[in-house]
Automatic annotation (TrEMBL):
The protein, known as: Transcription factor GTE6
InterPro entries to which the protein is assigned, alphabetical: Bromodomain (IPR001487), Bromodomain-like_sf (IPR036427), NET_dom (IPR027353), NET_sf (IPR038336)
Domain Bromo per the UniProt entry, residue ranges: 115-190
Keyword Transcription regulation (UniProt): yes
Domain NET: 259-340
Superkingdom of the organism of origin: Eukaryota
Any matching Pfam family: BET
Keywords in alphabetical order: Bromodomain, Coiled coil, Transcription, Transcription regulation
Biased composition (Polar residues): 350-364
Region (Disordered): 346-367
Coiled coil: 25-52, 211-261
């Protein structure tokens, strides 16, 4: 009766232990899923950073750089100090607009000289198409223009006003070009328009340096502003890269802790497990075999995975190393399309099931594999000699 009671208590303990292990497994699985989700998001941010620096490294003209920044306006909004950049841009535009208004005011003196000329009267008001019976006027002239319309646009405050002095200059030319286009070369209106246009062009050439100076100044201010935004973007992406590096490191450390937890919860490998693991190692490709040896070297400083001749003692490896090897070999062999029985199934109590290498496997085996096989054989021979003695 006493013995039966002890057995019952033992069974309850085992059942409770299994329940605890199941909870631990679920918790680890959830943590791994969370890590994968986090890593996917980090990868997206890494891609954004790589794309940013790729674009920055390409040699682009100032116009293409400007179009790039306009294209990425939504991303620019997220850089530090973006609101400050917006405010500075608004102030810069307002100041430039005032300077341009002053230039247009100065340009008004040229217009007065032209409009006060004795031959300017035909161009002061819109052409009276109906009154003069010019039925084909709108067929010849696409966009009528006159000085009263120009004056109204210069004085407008409803958004239709001129924004640049070159726009006024273009309309002044249009007034005379329309008259020259519609009227015969020898007509008075044509000669008057041609004469006034020549006078206007002379005065415009004298005035032009002021315009080009302002345009150059505005272009330099715009370039400086774009450079400021670019630097802010670079600083933001540099900080993002540092933060990403830290987050990736933390994720890697967390994953490493989970690996250690899993390994610690694994049962101790039996002699049969180790023997089958040794057999499975011989089935690896040369590349995967080198990776497996690197796993051993990570936890065994005295083991040189790159040595010409390797002596691998399975029994001398820690449980952590053995289980790492098992999981690595299992994944590798499954990648070859081999049966899981080569290295065992955890559902079958975790025991490894020995399987003979196929002819194809023997053909693939490299010199490196043979070295491992020989190393395993030497280790087994030494062990048998110790046991017999």
């Amino acid at each position: 009766m006493e013995e039966q009671l002890i057995l019952d208590i033992g069974d309850d303990g085992i059942e409770k232990m299994e329940e605890n292990n199941a909870v631990i497994v679920d918790d680890i699985g959830q943590q791994v899923d969370d890590l994968f989700t986090k890593v996917e998001k980090l990868e997206q941010r890494v891609n954004e950073i790589e794309q940013f620096y790729l674009n920055s490294s390409n040699k682009q003209s100032s116009s293409s750089q400007k179009s790039l920044l306009v294209k990425d306006k939504d991303k620019v909004k997220h850089i530090p100090g973006y609101k400050k950049h917006q405010q500075e841009a608004a102030r810069r535009e307002a100041t430039a607009a005032k300077r341009m208004q002053e230039i247009m005011r100065q340009f008004g003196s040229i217009l007065r000289q032209i409009t006060q000329h004795k031959w300017a009267w035909p161009f002061m008001q819109p052409v009276d198409v109906e009154g003069l019976g010019l039925r084909d006027y709108y067929e010849v002239i696409d966009r009528p223009m006159d000085f009263s319309t120009i004056k109204n646009l210069m004085e407008a405050k409803d958004g239709t006003e001129y924004k640049h002095v070159r726009d006024i200059c273009s309309d002044v030319r249009l007034v005379f070009q329309n008259a020259m286009k519609y009227n015969d070369d020898k007509s008075d209106v044509h000669v008057m328009a041609k004469t006034l246009l020549e006078k206007f062009e002379e005065k415009w050439l004298q005035f032009l340096p002021r315009v080009t100076e302002e345009e150059k100044r505005r272009e330099e201010e715009e370039a400086e502003a774009q450079l400021s935004i670019q630097r802010a973007q670079e600083a933001a992406h540099a900080k993002m890269a540092r933060d990403l590096s830290n987050e990736l490191y933390e994720a890697d450390m967390h994953l490493e802790q989970l690996r250690e937890t899993v390994v610690q919860k694994c049962r101790k490998m039996s002699i049969e497990d180790k023997r089958n693991l040794g057999i499975a190692l011989t089935q690896l490709s040369p590349e995967d075999l080198s990776k497996a040896l690197d796993i051993v070297a990570q936890h065994n400083p005295s083991f040189h995975s790159t040595a010409i001749e390797v002596d691998l003692d399975i029994d001398a490896q820690s449980e952590s190393t053995l289980w790492r090897l098992k999981y690595f070999v299992k994944d590798a062999l499954q990648g070859y399309g081999k049966d899981d029985a080569i290295i065992g199934d955890e559902a079958n109590n975790g025991h490894l099931s020995p399987t003979k290498p196929t002819n194809t496997t023997r053909t693939i085996a490299s010199k490196r594999k043979k070295q491992i096989c020989n190393a395993l054989a030497r280790t087994a021979k030494k062990r048998n000699q110790k046991l017999s003695s």
